[in-house]
Specification:
Layout lengths: L2 H8 L2 E3 L2 H12 L2 E3 L8 E3 L1 H14 L7 E4 H8 L10 E6 L5 H15 L14 H8 E8 L4 E7 L7 E8 L11 E4 L1 H9 L13 E4 L4 H10 L1 E2 L12 H9 L3 E2 L2 H30 L12
Parallel strand pairs: 5-8, 11-12
Antiparallel strand pairs: 1-10, 2-3, 4-5, 4-9, 6-7, 7-8, 9-10
Helix pairs in contact: 2-4, 3-5, 5-6
Amino acid sequence: MSGSGASDHSRRFCVLSWDQVQRLDSILGEAIPIHGRGNFPTLSVQPRQIVQVVRARLEERGVCVKDVRLNGSAASHVLHQDTGLGYKDLDLIFGVSLKDDQAFRLVKDVVLDSLLDFLPAGVSKERITALTLKEAYVQKLVKVCNDTDRWSLISLSNNTGKNVELKFVDSLRRQFEFSVDSFQICLDSLLLFDRCSETPMSESFHPTVIGESVYGDFKEAMEHLCQRTIATRTPEEIRGGGLLKYCHLLVRGFRPSSEADMKQMQRYIVCILVKLQHNRFSGYKININPSVKILSMASC
C-alpha cells in the first residue's frame, strides 16, 4: 500500500478512550429481554453472552469468525453519549464467509441452537426444534445474496423495540447511510479480556478497543456527530434512498452543513425513492395489465 493509501486507510480508525470503553462495557453487560410468543418464556440475554456463545458454536462447526463489531446507533452512543439520537436496536456484526446456501443455513441453525442456552432453568429442551425457536423468538429473518452483497440478519424479538440484531456479513457494498451512523466498534479485544483477565478493568488497565468509520474519515464523522451535521458520500448508492433515516435525523435536530448540501441530498433521496416505486409499479403493471404505459424515469 502506498504512503497516501496507508494514510487514507488509517483515517478510518481511532482508539477508544477509557470513558468510551466503559460505556461499551456497560452496553454489552446490559440484560435485554427476548420476548417469546405464546407460552414461551422471556429470555434474559446480555449482548456479550450471546456473542460469545454464537461465536464459539460457529467455530465448533468450522466457521471462522473474522471479527465481531457493534454497529449503528449503539456504536454512535458509545462514542458520543449526547448525540440526541439514543439507541434502540443492538446491531452486532459477525464477519464470516457465506460462500453458499449451506453456509447461510448453518449460521441460522447455530443462532437458533444458541438460544437454548438462555432458556430458564427447568424448561425441558428435548422437544424444542429449530423451527419452534424461530417461531417463538425471531422477529425478522433476512437473507441477501447477489453480486455485491452476501449477508444475513436474524433479529430477536423485543416487545419494546429494543431488538438484538445479529448480522452475518461476507460482503456488503454499502454499510452506512450517513456519516453519523457509519461507526463500527470491534469487540474482539474486550471479549478476549472478559475471558482471560482475572483483574477488573480500570483506567490504567483495560484492552485497546478500535473504532472505525466506514464513511472513511473517523475524525470528520465524529465532528458531524458532535455538531449534529447530516453528511454522506455517494448518496446515489444508499439502499432505498435513506429517506426515513434522513427524516429521523432532521427531527432530532441534525441539519445538513449548507443549503446547497441540503438541496443536493434531498434531490438524491427523493429521486431514488421515486425510482424504487416506479420499478415496483412497473413490475406490478407487467404482471397485471401489460397495456398500461409506464413513463420513463430518465430525468432523475
